[in-house]
């Protein structure tokens, strides 16, 4: 394990260190101390590193991550793991707006709550939220899975494409073209795997599934009221 | 009925003209607004309303063909470790793979590279064809983030954060199902054949303070090497440019309402935004007020067609221009050689703007493999290169006539305006007077 003190080094020096760790080294575990809510910490990492960030982080922590397993031992600001490609970003606390926005792959776990627009325009990522998510979550969500163990805020899944949403608590207000769908056996199996990966102790049978009605995929004047 | 009595001839309404009547009938029949490509078709004050004064006794001209007139430009010198060094101040604007064929994107790269300038991706990601043929490639970072990945970000030579575009400031993108081929769908992570809407706002930032943080993230991921552009549509250019500078942009791209689009509602194209000419001086003033003119570079776009337009834009304070529609025309768009096919589509060469339908006979705005194969990227790239070189020669000709040894030495003092409107917008005197509207005096 190697330690990096952000207070002493600054964000750029730490990121550059993470970018230039040789592919064939066994120095895989890095601990970042004193993150102080700074922005863009450990964004753009492109290697199978284990990164522990010991405190709260600002915007875009773990953004565009590839392969790294990043654990934030605190709360995360806007856009945590935005556009993640692969790997894992794990938030021990709560996450602000747009968590996992446009992310293509990997796993984002938020043990606490996530604010509005969680999973906005997600393109293949799996997101598991231990608490609740705010309004407009999964807006225009394209692919992947969003699991919410608490409640979902207003307009869940507005203009959703092919992403799958699982909510254990209340989801009273669905967005345009988002509907409740049948929870079939394959969905229960997928959800069980997601909960297991996120170390969340919930029964898949207690969740409901939501997805696209696919009525807005091609313009039809008779559906104009939905826009 | 007395046929000898003079009759009032039929008189059509200026308000309800033939075009308006046809549009009402079309709307009533289909239930959907008109969607089309290209930029505004209405006549607005433009660079044609300005003239260069040239040299005489009070100004010395430079000898054409013999005395040097520089054309190079450096973009991104504010913060980027590796700014773009271009031979000419005419760049190719962002146009997506999806809206354009892969052959057209390759041709744009070839033409731009041969002329020593940059081309730009679009809302759909970077294709190998385009990257492979582009010496300088600007990667657009858009609200949809279609095709966005850190590998391509790092392969780019510059990054353009798109906030808006001139054809539809405040609007998102649109690519109708007809053009969503397997490859386009795969790149955008969406099903084939559906209408793809791109959001009008970025998903993870709102406002200039957030933009500053987003730019910081992009700089971190690209190791502070790449110039970061911010592109805005022409709406409130003074404030938008000032905020882009405040957010940390290296380059501001300002797109007026003549700027094209692949597919947008006609009502949006024709009724939202400012003409390019009206954008330029407020933008330059914002840079001057901040002490950042020539430090943060300004690229102006929207209806740039000739070396005269280039020279006028630079004289008014821009560092470079970008062309989109004109570049497509150079590749072969709307060429009368396809007139028979244009007529089958219910249009004519020069008016074809149904770029969203994917039936372009020229093989440019299509994903139909048969149509796309008509465009030879090598030959089309050569046409674009020729055109860019002609524009540059034209601009040099004008600059030498004004006594300038570099295009960037052109200045507002070299210009006059033919109309009061153009004089007011460009802040140059009405021809034959010393009067600049808004500044008083005569």
| CATH uppermost class of chain B | Alpha Beta
Number of domains of chain A: 1
Write down the domain tally of chain B. Answer: 1
Poorly predicted ranges of chain A = none
The secondary structure category of chain A is: alpha/beta
Ends apart, CA distance between termini of chain A: 52 Å
Which features would summarize this protein structure in a list?
heterodimer; A: 227 residues; alpha/beta; 3 helices; B: 442 residues; two-stranded antiparallel sheet; 16 strands
Secondary structure elements and their pairing?
The complex is a heterodimer of chains A (about 230) and B (about 450).
Chain A: E1 2-5, H1 6-9, H2 11-19, E2 29-33, E3 50-54, E4 69-72, E5 88-91, E6 107-110, E7 123-129, E8 143-148, E9 164-167, E10 178-181, H3 185-197, E11 208-212
Parallel strand pairs in A: 1-2, 2-3, 3-4, 4-5, 5-6, 6-7, 7-8, 8-9
Antiparallel strand pairs in A: 9-11, 10-11
Chain B: H1 18-30, E1 35-36, E2 50-52, E3 73-75, E4 84-86, E5 90-92, H2 102-115, E6 118-120, H3 128-133, E7 136-141, H4 150-155, E8 158-162, E9 174-175, H5 182-188, E10 196-197, H6 207-221, E11 228-233, H7 237-246, E12 251-255, E13 264-265, H8 266-271, H9 276-289, E14 297-301, H10 307-315, E15 320-323, H11 325-331, H12 339-344, H13 369-372, H14 377-401, E16 415-417, H15 420-426
Parallel strand pairs in B: 5-15, 6-7, 7-8, 8-11, 11-12, 12-14, 14-15
Antiparallel strand pairs in B: 1-13, 2-16, 3-4, 9-10
Helix pairs in contact in B: 2-14, 7-9, 10-14, 11-14
